[in-house]
Amino acid sequence: MGSYVPNTPAERQEMLEALGLSSFRDLFAVVPEEMYLEDGALNIPQGMSELEVIRKVSEMAGKNRIFSTVLRGAGAYDHYIPSIVKYIPAKEEFLTAYTPYQAEMSQGILQSIFEYQTMICELTGMDVSNASVYDGATAAAEAAAMCRDRKRRVTLISGAAHPDTIQTVKTYCYGTGDELRIVPVKDGKTDMAALKEMLTADVASFYVQQPNFYGMIEDAKEIGDLVHEAGAMYVMGCNPISLGVLKTPRECGADVAVGEGQPLGMPLSFGGPYLGFMCTTQKHMRKLPGRIVGETVDSKGERAYVLSLQAREQHIRREKASSNICSNQALCALTAGVYMATMGAEGIAEAAKQSMSKAHYLAKELCAIPGVSLKNEGEFFHEFVTVMPKAEEVLTALEKADILGGLPVEGGILWCATEKVSKAQLDKAVAVVKEVLA
Amino acid sequence: MKLIFEKSAAGHRCAILPPCDVEVFELSAELTREVAPKLPELNEQEISRHYTELNKRVHGVNCGFYPLGSCTMKYNPRVDEEAAALPGFTQIHPLAPAHTVEGCKEALDTAKAYLCEITGMDDMTFQPAAGAHGEFTGVLLIKQYHDARGDSKRKKIIVPDSAHGTNPATAAMCGYDVVNIPSAPNGCVDLEALKAVLGEDTAGLMLTNPNTVGIFDENILEITRLVHEAGGLCYYDGANLNAVMGVVRPGDMGFDCIHLNLHKTFATPHGGGGPGSGAVGCKAALAPYLPKEDGIRVKSFNGNFLVVVKALTYLLTLGKEGVPEAAKNAVLNANYLQSKIKGTFTPAFDRLCMHEFVLDLSSFKKETGVSALDVAKSLIDYGMHPPTMYFPLIVHEALMLEPTETESRDTLDEAAEVFRKLFELAKTDPDYMHNAPHNAQIGRPDEVRAARTPVLRYSF
Question: Does the structure's ipTM exceed the value 0.90?
Answer without folding.
Answer: yes
